[in-house]
Every structure is written in structure tokens, then in C-alpha cells.
Design a protein that fits this description.
8 helices
Length: 333
């Protein structure tokens, strides 16, 4: 690649079912020139997230679909390399949403200066960023954990799930996590310090397996997967349990399968609540305060999976759906 040019990842075709790498293309353009009151940002890390899959299809959603032939958007951290803006200086690190490209121009309102003195810049795409705040809001505001309660988390080793597990532990809960490899199970139990973990790929009966680890039932289920995980959780929920519906990665490509035991939500008086973190930006200040303190105290651990090179962003994105990542999946530009 010619590194003196700007490279960006575009959506070439709308996928049918799960995307393929051929649905993307790498385009080469001139590095944009900032105007008066604007800054030029060079991206350092790009975030790839499961919700982006929904934007690749032409269908109604809470965010508009990606445009064909245009660079994709996504979370990113970068360095200001040229500035005509009074709030930003050359060398500042910023959090933005113009990922999937090497350079972009901003007029300043859609970027946020970040403090990298205590944590690396890329942390603002993980535990200090959207995934961390998603875990924080979903568990604390919807799940409302209390000491001694049991929390079950699907995709527990992912960017959101791993933070949910550890915040629940801070709140004095007992944690069961589900993940898809022995490596992830080891990280959850040995590094994140959760009480028990299931490798769902090694069980023939997930509902029975969950029940064996939760003899006193489940008080809070944090759902990142849907499907059989949601069904297993409902089966073992205690009365007045809370199911935090964050994501359903098993159904993002169009598959639809409702839990067959949803009728139990009535008899068990369950609360099932979905949420989108962009609706709750008012908690950002408190989230930064609490998460910063927990990190300083050594109570939050994390692991990033880093893929090198913007040309490999499509492969990194697809890897989310085959379980290639432990923790946050990042692309280092």
C-alpha cells in the first residue's frame, strides 16, 4: 500500500446472509485537506463491532444503513496531525466515529479529546468506551444487581460481556459466563475472576448445563447472544428476574428463533428490557469516574484482540461472528 495516500474500507455489495470479504473493497484516495476551523486526524485504532452488521443491510433500524461505495463508519481513536481549530492542537488524541479509514477531517463537534496519561488510547474503544459504558448502563440501571445475586452473562469474554462480569463481581454477585473456547474460559475464570464458565460449544444441552451451575436460579441475565442462550436463561430465572437485552449476535444475519419458553416470563414476572447505549449519554461522566477508579484499583481487567492493517478490517469484523476475539476486537491502522 502507498502509505502517503488515504486508504478506506467501503461496502461494495450488500451481503446476503453473513457478509464475505468480497462484499468489501479497499479504496485509495488523497489525504483530505482541513479547512479553517477544521482538524485532520490520523486514525491509530479502529473498532469493529457486531452492531455494524445490521447497517450493511437495507432495512429499518435505529441507525441508517451504510451507503454502498462509501467508507464505513465506526469508533476510532486517532491523533490530530493538522489543526485549524482553537480547541484542538497537533498531537492531541481524540475519540471519533469516522473509522474504517486512515485519515479524516473534522470540524470538531463529533470528536472528543481523550486523556491517555493513565490508560492507552485504544482503551477508549473498549473498557473506557462504548462497550464499557454499555456494560455499565445495562447491568447497573436495568439489571440492578444486589449482593449475593446470581448473574449469567452470554458472550462473557467479549468486549461488553467481560466488563459486565467484572462489574457484577464488584457488586458482590456470583457470576456464570458462557463463551466458545477453552482459552476464553480460562481467561474468564483465571483473569477476570468469575465463579464459573461454560464452553457452550462443548455441551449438548445448554439449558441443563446452565441449571447445573445455578442451583438457586438466576437473578440477572445479560444477553449478548439470544437464541438458545436466552431460552436457557429464561428456564432458570428466579421470580422477578431481570433480563438485560443488549444484543443477539446469533440472529444478526437474519436468522429468527424466539425462545420456546417465553411463556415463563408471565408466571415468573420477568422483566425483559432492551436498550441502545446511544440513548443514555447522560451517564458518561459517572461512567468515566467509576470505571477510571475501578481500573486504578486493579478491579477491572481486559484483553484486546488486535489485527494489524486497515486492509484486514473486513476479516477482523467477520472474525467477531466466528468467535476469533477475546475481549475487544481492534484494528491497528
Amino acid at each position: 500500500m502507498n502509505r502517503r495516500m488515504n486508504h478506506e474500507v467501503r461496502l461494495k455489495y450488500r451481503p446476503i446472509g453473513m457478509p464475505k470479504e468480497s462484499d468489501f473493497e479497499i479504496a485509495e484516495t488523497a489525504v483530505p485537506e482541513p479547512g479553517e476551523g477544521e482538524v485532520l486526524v490520523r486514525n491509530i485504532f479502529l473498532s469493529v463491532d457486531p452492531y455494524m452488521l445490521g447497517r450493511m443491510y437495507e432495512r429499518k433500524s435505529y441507525v441508517p444503513p451504510f451507503a454502498l461505495g462509501k467508507p464505513l463508519d465506526g469508533g476510532c481513536v486517532g491523533e490530530v496531525v493538522q489543526s485549524g481549530h482553537e480547541k484542538y492542537r497537533t498531537g492531541d488524541y481524540v475519540l471519533g466515529s469516522k473509522g474504517w479509514r486512515e485519515y479524516y477531517v473534522s470540524e470538531g463537534s463529533e470528536i472528543t479529546k481523550i486523556d491517555t496519561s493513565a490508560v492507552p488510547a485504544e482503551t477508549y474503544l473498549g473498557v473506557m468506551g462504548m462497550p464499557g459504558m454499555t456494560a455499565y448502563y445495562g447491568l447497573l440501571h436495568i439489571g440492578q444487581p444486589r449482593e449475593g445475586q446470581t448473574v449469567f452473562v452470554s458472550a462473557a469474554s467479549g468486549a461488553v460481556g467481560s466488563v459486565v462480569c467484572q462489574i457484577a463481581k464488584i457488586k458482590g454477585c456470583r457470576i456464570l459466563g458462557s463463551a466458545g473456547s477453552d482459552e476464553k474460559i480460562r481467561w474468564l475464570t483465571e483473569e477476570a475472576g468469575i465463579d464459573a464458565a461454560i464452553n457452550y460449544k462443548k455441551t449438548d444441552d445448554l439449558t441443563a448445563e446452565v441449571g447445573s451451575h445455578c442451583p438457586d436460579g438466576i437473578d440477572i441475565y445479560f444477553d449478548n447472544v439470544g437464541g438458545t442462550h436466552l431460552e436457557a436463561a429464561i428456564e432458570h430465572m428466579n421470580n422477578n428476574g431481570r433480563l438485560v437485552l443488549c444484543g443477539m449476535i446469533s440472529q444478526y444475519a437474519g436468522q429468527r428463533s424466539g425462545p420456546r419458553n417465553i411463556f415463563l416470563a408471565v408466571s415468573k414476572r420477568l422483566l425483559l428490557q432492551g436498550f441502545i447505549i446511544r440513548d443514555h449519554q447522560d451517564i458518561r461522566g459517572q461512567f468515566y469516574k467509576d470505571m477510571g477508579r475501578w481500573i486504578t484499583e486493579g478491579r477491572i481487567r481486559w484483553k484486546d484482540t488486535v489485527v494489524e492493517g486497515i486492509e484486514n478490517a473486513p476479516a477482523a469484523f467477520l472474525g467477531l461472528f466466528s468467535g476469533d476475539n477475546v475481549g475487544k476486537m481492534l484494528v491497528k491502522v
